[in-house]
Amino acid sequence: MATVEDKKTHYLKDAAAYKQSLQDDRQVYFRGERIEDVTTHHATAGGINNIADLYDLQFDPEGEKLLTYVRDDGARVTASYLVPKSKEDLVFRREGIKRVARETWGTHGRGIDMISTLPVGMLAELPSFRRACPETAENIVWYTKYCEENNIHLSETIVDLQGFRSRASGTAPDTLPPDRATARIVKEDASGIWISGVKGVGTAVPQSNEVLIGSFHPPLDEESFWVYVPIDSPGIKVICRDVTHRPGSSAYDRPLSHRGEELESVLCFDNLFVPRERIIAMRRREVHGVNFYNVWGRYEHWYTFIRIVAKAELYAGLAQLIVDTLELGEVAVVRQRVADVIEYCQILQGLQYAAEELAKPTEGGVMVPDVNVTTAARSYALENLPRVMHILQDICGQGLVLRWSEADLQTPAAFGKNLDWFLDTRKLAAKDKNLVMNLVFDVTASEHAIRSKLFEESNALNVPFLKERLYGEYDRSGFLNDCRNFIGLGNAGVQSYEPRIEAPSLSSVKTDALAGPRGARGN
Hints:
Largest sheet: 6 strands, mixed
Structural class: alpha+beta
Helix content: 25-40%
Number of helices: 16
Distance between the termini: 24 Å
Radius of gyration: 25 Å
Oligomer: single chain
Strand order of the largest sheet: 2-1-10-11-7-6
Shape: globular
């Protein structure tokens, strides 16, 4: 990471510039109506304001240290697109990721610096892309620098929709549109390509500047592409899901979700033009297998894990806040349940450090955290997340059910006293105690909280697929031979531990032709 200081030169946006960059010609729809200005509409504005705060934080003396860095040429830029070359760079990014996550309790899975990990991940495997796509691979270098120097908030849409016409596996490959609606290249010339079809789940697309569009396991060359485009490109229509937050709610009633949310969406393409310089790959099915994605997506998967660590740390703090508020510190069973939350946090923190310590450079020279530690950590985190959320709910007792508005607390009740008289604790007045319960509800039980949990459980591979990765990639041959030799069976034959997921609906395209030497990939 560069250390040259020159604060007079920077490529950073503030909140106002970020919001202005969204006031363009994008076609975003909510409940059947076009949103004229996403920065003011109740469905999208809250999430945008959250992101805008982070843009302003880049200019805060403390925030600057975590969210920006100075390049070798003296320019200060966003750290979102920092290409890590050392373990120290990973530590730096880890703390920045956590700082961003704490702003939303980790509920924004597509924050300001998340999808930026994908072009960086492509750089990590640039030699593989060069082998497969020599005519377009260098666009990765240009685009990453472009995003860094324009402080781009990037989103993605990769997966197919659940409707059978939209899934690559839902209709016969020779079925013609619109009966086969999978996004595809419909035209090509020297200037670029045109894409038509649909994609989802476009999280935060309505609130971002640009979007990565791609495909997994396509059966046809024309359905194979990785491209980056501005959201306001002609030919893109964005249709938002319904909201889970309550627009107009107060910070007291909904301490977290009153601030809004990131929105998922469906992206519809009608002759979307993509110029050549924005095409990373096209008509190369070998770079669209889920197993190759899991190679160049390792940095993204580590980011996802670090965001969950940040949530775990907040959960540990929240558990103690509940104990202090309800005066439960002398109750042994409560202490033990809080210890379960602390244990969850501590284990994830340990795995976080292990992934960094075991990090290795890729063939492209990018330092990437250990893939097996990251995969095991994410699997453990997701399996135990519902239990941790339940513990936080459980130790609240009736407080999580009996929550009140500020007006309710001032309602006359009995003995000439208002309701709040009967809800005071020795440490907190009823109003503040109720505020704590509102926070726990908003973080663990509200509609917004459940959406966040559902997102975590399906984002970037769910637990069964993570376990499939561990089985396929974790090299236990030494341990196997220890067992065999102990009983005189001798060493087993050479076994291969390569990135793989075997499932009928996923690509069987092998990555052998793309990947360089095993050691160079850091596996």
